[in-house]
Amino acid sequence: MKTSTRLLPALALLAGLANGAAAQLPRVLRPSPAAPDTIVVPPTLAVDTSLSPFAPSDVPTAADRSIARAFELSTAGASEQPGDILEGVAALSDSIAREDRVAVLSRDRLLTRRGLGDLTLNWTARDRQVRAWRRQLQDVSSQVDSARRELTGLRERWRVTAASQDSTTLPDLRARTTQVIDELHLVDSALNARTTRVVDAELTLSEASSTIFAELHGLAAAQQEMRRSLLRIESPPLWRSVLATGSLSTSERGGLGTAVHEIEWFVRGNAGRLTLHVLLTLVVILLAMTKRERVRSAAESSDALGEQFAILRRPVASILLLSISLTMWFYPRAPLGVYDAALVLSAIPLLLLVPELIPPDLHRSAREAIVFLVLQRLAALATLGSAASRLTQLGLSVAGALLLWQLLRPGGALRQSEPRWRFTLQRAAWVLLGAFIVALGSNIIGNVTLADAINSGVALSAFAAILLRAITMVINLFISAAVHAGASESRYLTERGAQVERTLVGLTGTVGFIAWVALSLQGLQLWAPVWSALRAALFRTFTIGAVSLSLAIVLLFVFVLALGVLVARLISGIVEFEVMGRMDLRRGVSVTVGSLLRYALIAVAFLVALAAVGINAGNLAILGGALGVGIGFGLQNIVNNFISGLLLAFERPVGIGDTVQVGPNTGEVREIGIRASIIRTVEGAEVIVPNSELITQDVINWTRSGTRRRIDIPIGVAYGNDPAKVIDLLTDVALQHADVRGNPKPFTLFLGFGDNSLDFSVRAWTDSPDWPVVRSDIAVAISAVLREAGIEIPFPQRDLHLRSVDVELLKDLRGEATGA
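^ thats the sequence. predicted structure below, dont judge the formating
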């Protein structure tokens, strides 16, 4: 067989790829040696006569393309993943073989709550690893299967081509055809071997997955059984078995030693991430120290933070607390021992921050609560699985009850706390005291599980409340500093920074409260049943006509719509202040564009919310008809105001910042809403005017085309003065004022002869928005100039003529006059 020189590298590479793989296949799948002119065709495959052969003239070119394509297909799934996965599965199988089975631990009563948590984490981690390996194998298998299908098509066509050749075909073409078929068969053998390795790995993973599934199922059953045992007496009364061996668990699983071992294993496996975590914490501490005064000034000027900026007195402790508290989010798959260590370490900065978090009369109580939780965690870990565990829980219940009684007794800290704290804290303390008493009684009569859950849950809940308050305060400070720092560069933050800050601070508080509820339920072992009941309530469907709804769908609709409204406000605000605000546009144009964009985005958000819950917008036709009828009867005014608002937005006869007069009200337009506009009068009142009144009624806009305004000051002087001299004096006074325009020039008109005076009018133009002040200044100056010129400003005089008077009254008047 003749082989072209350019094909030798490809043949060598293909042979190397298939060399090791073909040796692992059954003999029937290996290519058998054949003579150079022999076409290797497995006997189980028949020639597909539906395929058309290559024309003799196309054989050389098609052969080159087929070999090049075969070389590309030979790389499909060519990775070491199957082998690495087989090695990983072997190690996983060894760890599974060494792991205690939940059924055995439950049977021998060696399964504690902490041990159950450790086992759940371990088996869940194995399940995640197996799922990841399976996804990798599926990717490899998909690539190999696709390559084999394409390769089979190529082989079939070349087989058809070989079958169509006869003695009249040139020998070189027959040899070339045979060569291509051999090379395609070689690549197929390599891909077949690769498929075999993938199948072997998948079979091994299937065995491990079956074991993991069984253990996870058993752990779920054990957790459910443990939750049911919260109200079940599982041990003898304390006075019978306080020192009895075996009355409680004798396993050391989950104790202090195990926690230390878990922490050591975690540190070794995450040394790089922990180093980065520490470095980032140090960098943030340095930044906080250098920007401390700037953050303090921003926090003190914030309306949303109140007195929370006091936490800046301890910046290092605040950042350390935040860094330690984020361990659960940074390392979500860490062992329970790591979380316990983080909880204990967070007590150090938290103790330093107590004076900044808690009212002064509760400082001691807060510190005692923090120390109590630390001791509770350490004591529970040290005695877990031993006979002393029950006595430890008994001591913790007594200590917790005594601590709360010290707070609630007459003269205690909670009796002297601030009024705004007193009611809430007293009720909470009474509830916790009752819980510790229940835990004490449960332990004595034999329900140790309930006592353990109450002790750990109550302590964790109190600690979490203080911890999350500190965390939210630190985050709020960062938010305030970021908003105030951005306000110097962003017009949007300058105008809307306070609103953005209030929104983010409120969101932080909401998230903190939800986290506290979740941690409290987790500590009390109520998270699983509460979450199960909540899910059942959320996804329970109810039908209204042909529409099926659930609480989850309604909440999803509200959430998506609220999120869309926030995004719409953000985008429209950025466009209004950052884009349009930097252009040389007429006043009010940016506000109009921002408002229209906000309305459009809210409409899009509404449609997206409908799509998110699976409601077709076309199905709202009936609702639209009903709304049309309602509009026709009772919503005319609302729709009228809405359409008027759109007309105001497009025509812009009135804009934000314009000074308008609507009826008896004169003031500045502060806001043009979707239904009404707000006008702030000079007296400071905010008048809400329906948009329809701005369209249908007479509106005087003093500043639509500019702020230029004419000032008229009427004045009268006494008879006998020269009108020309008075005109010159009054005009000079107006010209001398700095805010009076020189073009057009001010002038004075002689209006006529009044009853008591010669009447004049001073008229001047000003661009000042404080035109009443300009008018007042000119009037004062006119009074001074006329006084200096000796020109009198007369006051009204009247002569009273009495035509008929009572005689007696006249005598009395004369007598008084005589007597006077």
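DSSP finds 27 helices and ten strands in the chain.
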